[in-house]
Design brief:
- The complex is a heterodimer of chains A (about 110) and B (about 110).
- Chain A is mainly beta and about 110 residues long.
- Chain A is built from no helices and eleven strands.
- In chain A, strands 2, 4, 5, 6, 9, 10 and 11 form a seven-stranded mixed β-sheet that branches. In chain A, strands 1-3-8-7 form a four-stranded antiparallel β-sheet, with no helix packed on it.
- In chain B, β6 and β7 form a beta hairpin.
- The radius of gyration of chain B is 14 Å and the shape is globular.
- The N and C termini of chain B lie far apart (about 35 Å).
- Chain B is an all-beta fold and about 110 residues long.
- Chain B has no helices and eleven strands.
Chain lengths: ~110, ~110
């Protein structure tokens, strides 16, 4: 039973560039959420996808966008990268039902120079 | 006030000690509660869900107090391997069940 998988594991980009991060949810899960975690902080909610639609969004600018595919996998895109975008980006999946806990992937560590 | 608040610690405790963490939440519409464990530079991993009647899993006990809007995690007989950051997670009812994380409490178990 495959868990949540994310790619790539590490990424180094230059300020102003664009990046795409990928996530495959745990088998059977239909909901994917993305989080940004800066060093020493808890994960901050970016957005959530269900049935290929963004249905919740955290306090992140429009530079952050995403997509969910029919197979429930998801992408996170960040445009016009800033130094402050350097963080661990976590993808989590769960069932779209009450009390279903989030299962996280290993994360993508993004460094913007 | 933050939606979910935790004492960041660090809590430095000797092996074998009992340690407790609290987490307060501000939204009374909160529905589900969880504790996650996160090791340095790793992803959070589910430690346990928190049920209204309280629940236990080995050395770990979770409690929920809806009246005072807090949850707690008790770790008995601490092991060196328990050293990690413990994240409190609150899931709200209504409108797509928003999930909010606390900033985490760091535990260091000392030999």
């Amino acid at each position: 039973d495959a868990g949540v998988t994310q790619s790539p594991t590490h990424l180094i980009k230059t300020r102003g560039q664009q990046v795409t991060l990928r996530c495959s949810p745990k088998s059977g899960h239909d909901t994917v959420s993305w989080y940004q975690q800066a060093l020493g902080q808890g994960p901050q909610f970016i957005f959530q996808y269900y049935e290929e639609e963004e249905r919740q969004r955290g306090n992140f600018p429009d530079r952050f966008s995403g997509h969910q595919f029919p197979n429930y996998s998801s992408e996170l895109n960040v445009n016009a990268l800033l130094l402050g975008d350097s963080a661990l980006y976590l993808c989590a999946s769960n069932f779209e039902t009450a009390n279903s806990p989030l299962h996280f992937g290993n994360g993508t560590r993004l460094t913007v120079t | 006030r933050k939606e979910v608040e935790q004492d960041p610690g660090p809590f430095n405790v000797p092996e074998g000690a009992t340690v407790a963490f609290n987490c307060t939440y501000s939204n009374s519409a909160s529905q589900s509660f969880f504790w996650y464990r996160q090791d340095c530079r790793k992803e959070p991993k589910l430690l346990m869900s928190v049920y209204s009647s309280g629940n236990e899993d080995g050395r770990f006990t979770a409690q929920l107090n809806r009246a005072s809007q807090y949850i707690s995690l008790l770790i008995r007989d601490s092991k060196l391997s328990d050293s990690a950051t413990y994240l409190c997670v609150v899931r709200y009812s209504g409108g797509y069940q928003k999930v909010t994380f606390g900033t985490g409490t760091k535990l260091q178990v000392i030999p």
